[in-house]
Design brief:
- By secondary structure, the chain is an alpha+beta fold.
- It has one domain: Creatine Amidinohydrolase (Alpha-Beta Complex).
- It has 4 helices and 13 strands.
- It has a 3-stranded antiparallel beta sheet with strand order 1-4-5, covered by helices on one side. It has a 3-stranded antiparallel beta sheet with strand order 2-3-6, covered by helices on one side. Strands 9-12-13 form a 3-stranded antiparallel beta sheet, covered by helices on one side.
- The termini are far apart.
Amino acid sequence: MIYPSKAVKSPNEISKIEKACKLGDEIFAYILKKIKLDITEKEIAREINLFIKKSGSKCSFPTIVAFGKNSANIHNVPTDNKLTKNQIILLDFGVKLEGFCSDMTRTIFSGKPTPKQKRMYETVLSAQQKTIDFITSFANDLFRSGGKKKGRILKAKDVDHTARAYIESEGYPTIPHSLGHGIGRKVHEAFRISPKSKNYLKEGMVFSIEPGIYFPNFGGVRIEDLVVLEKSGLRLLTHSPKNIIEI
């Protein structure tokens, strides 16, 4: 098993990442008030980037804003595409504050989501929660036994499988990216949570959990949060709401 040297964060480093995540939550609350019909992806991205700049921080990666079918593009570059009714809105952004990064994705809707959009969203949200529950159920026994539970270690690929298998069981295509990644001074740092990962998870690791479903020419849903693995279990560092939001 591979155990990257930068993967485990000190309490001070975790505190700084948490501070960056708090700013990310503030940005999300702010941008919800700016989204309206006929606004473009570029305009929303500009608003996010301006807020980040005024806060004294920097973008931890290029801001992703995607409307409608563009939300199926995992790394969509914002365009002049205008928002219309009943579209998926995908927002993926992060800040770098005091040298440490945040990263969060939220998917919301312009108007009431269609049944297909709603089912996609609920499936992604359930996949994320099942992953969180899986890790949490491991945590107490894991740390009491010095990193092992019944002779097993908490493998990153098993964490990935929890979300991936659930999404596939619901009839959707597999997640076309890793379920998560380490984060710190860089937005992608130290390790990945993926089907081929050889890493295992330990106390003090900070990482993302970001399942997604994507259909070309229709749209995509992704929900991403940052978490830290502690002796008491998994703790969320991002706190923006994940209920279905209609603009």
